[in-house]
Q: What sequence folds into this?
């Protein structure tokens, strides 16, 4: 027997302009459902949530809900009221006579989310406001709980606590999140908004990639079959209409309609399956391997008379090409570490040395490099003009904006008109046009949709400089970094080779073995640390003996495609080499000779990347 139906929408239409957002939209929400709501930016996720709450009226169709059903909604934007405390805000939607029933949950939730319930809402930062909104939604315990990016501004400990809390939640959940691991851990169903249609998977987000690719492959096969049929009809129509009867004239008209519909459907399919393709960064100059060094660094701050230790006799070396992920609780020292590296802070004791050729591109989670009064065009072309230099090539600013999923028509819009996710995409567009030799990304995944995240992961996988990422997105860290620095408070820093999954295995191994490293031992494991005290010491067994993880579906698919890519580029190299071996080529066409030489060098570099990646993935699978 299916669980009780709480809410149903049938044949709904929502229209803001001539083109409807939804047409013939139908879905059901049952008691106990755990739903991941996914879709590209602009697909209508917020509109669908507003339909569920009842805030969005239907132009056509029916909405039904079980009498007495309550709906709670954690929105991305929270506007605090003057004089209101966090405690008052959490209880603002709960009747006074019911508050006593919920009061015990306030302390549990507030402690887990690191909230001071006596603090005034107007004094909270943006991240703290989001935590207060999440606390209110959890304490209310509605029958249907809608969560819009609940993990933004939460550290890993708080995210894992939230996962556990939601797994035991008695109501129904519908969640929008860019955090793939979070969605995989809490959901058992997927609502996928794709080109105005809602597609429902009866399995959780863990299986979304496999399921969605299967649907897209099926659609691609159907489009190919339709192309064949339309081609046959067009061939018939091309024989002329002489002496045709009316029924044949009607068939000719149908051919035109079929062709136009097919053209529209193919274009929509290409838009749905297109990926942002940004040119590869130029290969970094092969200078000294060690590009930055922390030697015996101490850093402390005064926190209301209490000494707050960030770094305690910290030593490490950062090598060219290192890919370091940084995680830890808020206030544990992650941002201070970055500021010490780029020279915005000085150590209390010790030395931070950075080679002159190391230049920084810095993605700041506060978006301080964006001027809200500038237009999108001016942000990318501050010196004026219509073109931006992207990896040494001139690109029209409108075309470049389109690469990052912006409507080129918005080039003259002010930055202040953008949403949080759009501002992050604009920042990425600005930084990734010409990333320097060291790319620092401080919480880059906040407010990004999954398509932009896929694009970012793809670009970072090909970036050849030194990469430092601060993030609490576990899947993102697993996909982009090769070592972890975990800031655990009081100057204690844990290092682990691999991504977040490897760090988690390391911590579990330490807990099961009952072993705790001393701070000195921890300093021995910092990446690239070849200082005199550490040069001869091997990394602890717990780091070197980490069990390999099974390849994800995404990585398996990448691995399966690499042999074909290698074969294609080898063929390209052979063709170019044969052309260049022609002794008359240069005399006959000097420009063509130089162009072919350039293409050969690019193809050889591409082949090396493909082969290296193939070896990496094969080793991971071994």
A:
């Amino acid at each position: 027997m299916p669980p009780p139906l709480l809410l149903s929408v049938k044949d709904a239409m929502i229209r803001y302009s001539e083109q409807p957002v939804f047409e013939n939209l139908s879905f059901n929400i049952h008691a106990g459902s755990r739903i991941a709501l996914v879709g590209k930016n602009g697909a209508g996720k917020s509109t669908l949530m507003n339909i569920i709450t009842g805030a969005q009226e239907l132009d056509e169709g029916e909405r039904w809900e079980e009498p007495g059903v309550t709906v709670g909604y954690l929105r991305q934007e929270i506007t605090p009221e003057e004089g209101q405390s966090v405690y008052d805000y959490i209880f603002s939607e709960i009747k006074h006579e019911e508050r006593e029933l919920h009061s015990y949950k306030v302390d549990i939730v507030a402690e887990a989310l690191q909230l001071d319930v006596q603090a005034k809402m107007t004094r909270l930062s943006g991240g703290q406001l989001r935590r207060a909104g999440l606390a209110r939604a959890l304490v209310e315990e509605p029958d249907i709980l809608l969560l819009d990016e609940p993990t933004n501004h939460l550290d890993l400990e708080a995210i894992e606590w939230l996962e556990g809390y939601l797994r035991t939640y008695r109501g129904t959940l519908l969640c929008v999140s860019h955090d793939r691991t979070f969605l995989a851990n809490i959901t058992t169903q997927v609502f996928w908004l794709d080109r105005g249609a809602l597609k429902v998977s009866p399995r959780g987000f863990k299986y979304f990639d496999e399921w969605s690719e299967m649907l897209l492959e099926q659609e691609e096969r159907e489009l190919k079959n339709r192309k064949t049929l339309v081609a046959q009809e067009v061939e018939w129509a091309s024989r002329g209409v002489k002496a045709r009867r009316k029924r044949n004239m009607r068939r000719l008209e149908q051919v035109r309609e079929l062709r136009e519909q097919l053209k529209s459907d193919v274009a929509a399919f290409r838009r749905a399956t297109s990926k942002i393709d940004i040119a590869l960064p130029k290969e970094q100059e092969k200078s000294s391997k060690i590009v930055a060094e922390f030697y015996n660094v101490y850093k402390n701050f005064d926190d209301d008379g209490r000494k707050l230790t960030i770094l305690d006799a910290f030593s490490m070396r950062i090598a060219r090409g290192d890919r370091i992920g940084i995680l830890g609780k808020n206030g544990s020292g992650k941002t201070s570490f970055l500021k010490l590296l780029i020279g915005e802070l000085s150590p209390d004791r010790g030395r931070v040395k950075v080679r002159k050729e190391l230049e920084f591109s810095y993605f700041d989670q506060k978006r301080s490099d964006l001027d809200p009064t500038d237009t999108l065009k001016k942000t990318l072309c501050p010196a004026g003009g219509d073109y931006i230099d992207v990896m040494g090539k001139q690109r029209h600013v409108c075309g470049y904006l389109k690469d990052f999923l912006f409507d080129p028509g918005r080039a003259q819009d002010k930055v202040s008109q953008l949403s949080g996710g759009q501002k992050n995409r604009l920042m990425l567009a600005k930084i990734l046009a010409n990333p320097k030799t060291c790319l620092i990304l401080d919480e880059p995944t906040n407010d990004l949709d999954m398509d932009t995240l896929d694009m970012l992961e793809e670009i970072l996988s090909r970036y050849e400089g030194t990469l430092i990422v601060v993030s609490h997105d576990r899947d993102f860290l697993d996909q982009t970094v090769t070592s972890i620095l975990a800031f655990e408070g009081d100057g204690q820093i844990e290092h682990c080779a691999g991504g977040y999954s490897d760090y988690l295995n390391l911590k579990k191994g330490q807990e099961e073995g009952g072993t705790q490293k001393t701070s000195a031992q921890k300093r021995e494991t910092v990446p690239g640390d070849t200082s005199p005290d550490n040069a001869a010491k091997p990394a602890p067994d717990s780091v070197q003996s980490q069990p390999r993880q099974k390849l994800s579906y995404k990585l398996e698919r990448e691995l399966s495609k690499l042999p074909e890519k290698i074969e294609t580029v080898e063929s390209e190299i052979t063709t170019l080499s044969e052309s260049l071996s022609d002794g008359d080529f240069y005399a006959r066409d000097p420009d063509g000779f130089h162009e072919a030489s350039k293409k050969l060098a690019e193809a050889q570099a591409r082949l090396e990347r493909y082969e290296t990646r193939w070896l990496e993935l094969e080793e991971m699978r071994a």
About this structure: The two ends are 44 Å apart (CA to CA). Confidence is low (pLDDT under 50) at residues 242-247, 280-287, 515-548. The longest strand covers residues 290-303.
